[in-house]
Design the sequence.
């Protein structure tokens, strides 16, 4: 286990950081998957983290090399910001070797982005996405 994980939750963030993470969002950044699931792309998560912690003030740290399990690329990592552990998660991306439009490295990046958005569930970012009334 990474040493930062042992210190998780020991110190909260400033009200300024919390306000930056909690900023309401426009419906225009919400996308809808073909199955009807709503989501916000990883770029908006990265922008929000940059506003809250500054570029370079946060990072996603791999806990294992990317792995292919069945038809999925899996990326396991944890998010840290200002030296503090936030959350760990597994991200995944479907990998179809015969699909010339998405290479293995594209799938690794997709799985990493999925890991990031999952780690951000521990922060007050885009929480309306899980509110049944909003959905």
Sequence:
């Amino acid at each position: 286990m990474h040493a930062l994980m042992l210190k998780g939750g020991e110190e909260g963030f400033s009200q300024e950081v919390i306000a930056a993470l909690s900023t309401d969002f426009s419906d225009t950044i919400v996308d809808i998957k073909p199955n009807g699931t709503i989501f916000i792309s990883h770029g908006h998560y990265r922008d929000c983290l940059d506003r809250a912690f500054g570029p370079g003030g946060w990072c996603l740290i791999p806990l294992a090399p990317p792995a292919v399990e069945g038809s999925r690329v899996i990326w396991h990592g944890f998010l840290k910001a200002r030296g503090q552990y936030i959350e760990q998660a597994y991200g995944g991306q479907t990998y179809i070797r015969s699909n010339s439009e998405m290479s293995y490295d594209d799938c690794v990046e997709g799985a990493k982005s999925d890991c990031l958005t999952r780690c951000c569930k521990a922060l007050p970012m885009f929480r309306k996405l899980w509110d049944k009334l909003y959905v």
In short: Strands lie at 30-32, 38-40, 58-62, 67-69, 72-81, 84-94. Residues 3 and 85 are 9 Å apart (CA to CA). The chain has a mean pLDDT of 91.
